[in-house]
Amino acid sequence: MPDAEWLVKIVVTGGFGVGKTTLVGAVSEIPPLRTEAVLTQASAATDSLTGVEGKTTTTVALDFGRLTFAEPPMKVFFFGTPGQARFSHGWTDIAYGAVGTILLVDTSRLQDSFTSLTFAEELGIPFVVAVNQFEHDPNRYTPAEIRDALELAAHVPVVACDAREAESVAHVLAALLTSLTSPSSCGAPL
Q1: Taking the complete model, does pTM exceed 0.70, yes or no?
Q2: Superfamily (CATH) of domain 15-180
Q3: What are the CA-CA distances from residue 69 to residues 5, 28, 75, 166, 180 (Å)?
């Protein structure tokens, strides 16, 4: 069907405060749907703000955005998960029907990525690790160093990005879409 439009669902996951909401907003052609709640003292013991001291809100359900391509005709739907493990009960529902996952990580808090990494691996669909880095980030590492630290399989792409910049996020998306066509891209059998 040459005139058929492809509908592609991508999950964006990662630890608390790594920039998932920002990434979805940067690339979405529509105003993104955000389910953010204000951080309160009640969550202070649960949600450590170390490394994200200026954070005032958090995603409690999901983020949603859309990006349309003319050639080939395709709509990509981005579904962002909350970052805290306490919301992980809903992650599988958010991921239902997804063809790929973007795992966003922050190298200054890499340890916060392991719950989301396990989730991405267990989905059994291709995923890419997007390293959210900024121009003057003192925590810059090579893709090989990040691959080693996260114990990633060789076929998992590792791409540096700035989640605030649409062009940078486009490189992450391109890496994921390329991996979707690779026969060795899945982390586990479907």
Answers
A1: yes
A2: P-loop containing nucleotide triphosphate hydrolases (3.40.50.300)
A3: 9, 12, 6, 14, 17
